[in-house]
Amino acid sequence: MRHFTNSEIIASLDWQPLVEALREGFRRGAHSPPRPHYTVSVPDARDATLLLMPAWSEGRYIGLKTATVFPDNGRLGLPTVTSYYMLMSAKDGRLVATLDGGELTARRTAAASALASSYLSRPDSSRLLIIGTGKLSPNLAAAHAAVRPIEEIAIWGRDRSKAEAVVGQLAEQGIKAAIADNLEQEVRRADIVSCATLSTEPLVRGAWLRPGIHLDLVGAFTPTMREADDEALRRARVFLDTQEGAMTEAGEIVQAMASGALQGEDIQGDLFDLARGDAQGRSGPDEITLFKSVGCSLEDLVAAELCFVRCAGR
User: Fold this and answer.
1) Which residues, in sequence order, are bridge partners of residue 66?
2) Is residue 116 in a domain?
3) Considering Cα of 146, then 150, then 155, then 161, what sign does the dihedral take?
4) 146-202 pLDDT, tens digit each
5) HEC readout, 161-225
6) Which PANTHER family does the entry mention (predicted)?
7) Cα(246)–Cα(252) distance, rounded to whole angstroms?
8) Range of the domain at 43
């Protein structure tokens, strides 16, 4: 049985191969039931969340990720999300590998956004805005830049020092980025806006979205959270990572459905539909597109399998 550290996961999951593995994974499909999540009370802090994410593909592999989300860990200098992954044979049930979940989750999440962007953003997209300064931010910047000819990257966060840290991390990867000081101004000029925060109030306003923009919403993984307002959903063609997960968990979707800003028939499809050609992606240069993800255990399974096969040679 092999254990893969975060550094080994980074080394084995290059962006292009991972995006293509996810494309094939969504095309092929797997058993990926909705994740149960449980509220955990934390003394003198906001409630935490425990998530269990199983997935399996007959004759291939079974995977299970456990994840905890502690929203106030930042003030303690600790990661908000902590996760671990177990990969088992679907032929005999043996545990074949364990993986540190932090980089596995960050890279598969960012790669899923890049996969969606390959269908939904303009092929000539060159200006990228990242909203949020957590672990996902540099991953999203690098992943989007792997599928589109990105020339300018701006990083916005409530804490400028954290935004500067993200810019520094990207510089270490040879990716040039700059601080975004005015959020509205940067949204209005961006080709792609990728948002990964724990916000419970809209950060992106629909009125700011110019024709041709692609909005990638990665945070807001519970019904009480959201990163974009109802107007953004009204103006855009809306796509999800999975229908089953996002329709019940994604804050923007749940709240817009409740307000009447979004109807079920307004949802254009999910990554399964896009990968299989059952839904049309971007249909014109001036169209506004929106991708909402809450995470899918199929993505973890695909990423863990790719890491195992590339590193273990089987």
Assistant:
1) 52, 84
2) no
3) positive
4) 999 999 999 999 999 999 999 999 999 999 999 999 999 999 999 999 999 989 999
5) HHHHHHHHHHHHCCCCCEECCCHHHHHHHCCEEEECCCCCCCCECHHHCCCCCEEEECCCCCCCC
6) KETIMINE REDUCTASE MU-CRYSTALLIN
7) 9
8) 2-104+298-312
